[in-house]
Automatic annotation (TrEMBL):
Residues 33-175 form the Copper acquisition factor BIM1-like domain. InterPro entries: BIM1-like, BIM1-like_dom. Keywords: Cell membrane, Glycoprotein, GPI-anchor, Lipoprotein, Membrane, Signal. This is Copper acquisition factor BIM1-like domain-containing protein. The lineage of its organism: Eukaryota, Fungi, Dikarya, Basidiomycota, Agaricomycotina.
Length: 273
């Protein structure tokens, strides 16, 4: 009896050890972006050595998905434990700089393998019109490494009443670990092309001068292109955290692998048990 109980206990201990020690993957293990748009269709190809190249991982503009002015969904396929996933858009058919982009969703602090689906931007409310080309961007880190990777999808806006969602489109979240930051703790970027008319109606007023951040970094003129992309993304993330709210001084990047993940994993474990 006692030994059966002991075996059961050690199984629980082993399960806990397995769950609380997430593996940090390397980008080189993947043949496609490990955080990838499943809708709208992403740019095709994946250049593992250029995945850190802003704004779109070194990939040229691809086929455009017709996308509604409002009510569109964005879905992602996640292949490994990812951190600080942020979704952005640029009112541009071929943005050349990261700082043209603005965020449109709360930061996914930690998300494990599975599918994620949420609301796309309300482009009508943002002042864009049917016929415009827009570029969507997902930036993300792999758990345990603060390097940001860049992945894009190209869309063309259409009136809501001439939009048809793809057949069998299922919008759901299926990751065992999904921790989403609150609005005030999320990375909030408003790109250089973001106008006053595009201020959200939800009262978010955190504004990052990414153009200045990027200029400051480029003026040091010694780093490689990817180093300055990392630096600007990191400095943006840091300022977003710093100015987001008085009581969240830890900031966005400080949450990677911190208590956020532990809490999410413990939550997941509680469900498993
Ligand atoms: C990929 O990166 C290499 C090295 O930085 C660079 O020479 C090459 O032009 C890049 N390719 C693309 C398509 O960006
Ligand atoms: C966005 O701003 C940059 C300069 O900050 C400008 O060169 C570019 O043309 C703008 N793009 C659009 C779509 O307005
Ligand atoms: C979107 O970009 C187009 C083309 O550059 C520009 O005419 C328009 O003013 C932009 N819209 C907004 C809301 O910034
Ligand atoms: C983090 O990822 C980058 C890009 O893949 C890589 O060059 C670097 O070696 C990684 N750092 C660590 C500590 O694994
Ligand atoms: C998925 O999670 C996000 C938060 O990360 C939430 O906004 C969204 O509504 C969820 N999607 C579904 C289909 O419940």
């Amino acid at each position: 009896m006692a030994s059966i109980a002991l075996i059961a206990l050690s199984c629980v201990a082993a399960a806990q050890a397995a769950v609380v020690a997430p593996r940090a993957a390397s980008i080189s293990e993947f043949s496609a972006s490990p955080v990838e748009f499943t809708y709208p269709t992403p740019r095709s190809g994946f250049l593992v050595n250029n995945a850190t190249t802003y704004p779109c991982g070194g990939l040229p503009v691809g086929d455009r998905t017709a996308y509604p002015l409002s009510g569109g969904k964005v879905s992602l396929d996640i292949d490994t434990l990812a951190a600080n996933v942020n979704l952005l858009y640029a009112n541009s058919s071929d943005p050349k700089t990261f700082h043209e982009f603005s965020t449109f969703a709360n930061t996914l602090l930690d998300v494990s393998e599975g599918g994620w689906c949420g609301e796309g931007p309300d482009f009508g409310e943002l002042g864009l019109s049917a016929g415009s080309d827009v570029t969507l961007l997902a930036i993300y880190q792999l758990y345990g490494n603060k390097t940001y990777f860049y992945h894009c999808a190209d869309i063309n806006l259409v009136e809501d009443n001439s939009y048809t969602a793809p057949n069998n489109f299922a919008c759901s979240n299926s990751s065992a670990v999904l921790e989403t930051a609150s609005g005030e703790d999320s990375m909030v970027l408003k790109g250089s092309n973001f106008s006053a008319a595009q201020e959200g109606v939800d009262g978010q007023t955190v504004s990052i001068d990414l153009a200045a951040a990027t200029a400051a970094v480029s003026s040091t003129a010694s780093g490689s292109a990817s180093a300055s992309a990392d630096a600007s993304a990191t400095s943006a993330a840091t300022s977003a955290g710093a100015s987001g709210s008085a009581n969240s001084g830890a900031g966005v990047s400080a949450k990677v692998g911190g208590t956020g993940l532990a809490a999410a994993l413990i939550g997941g474990l509680a469900l498993l048990l």
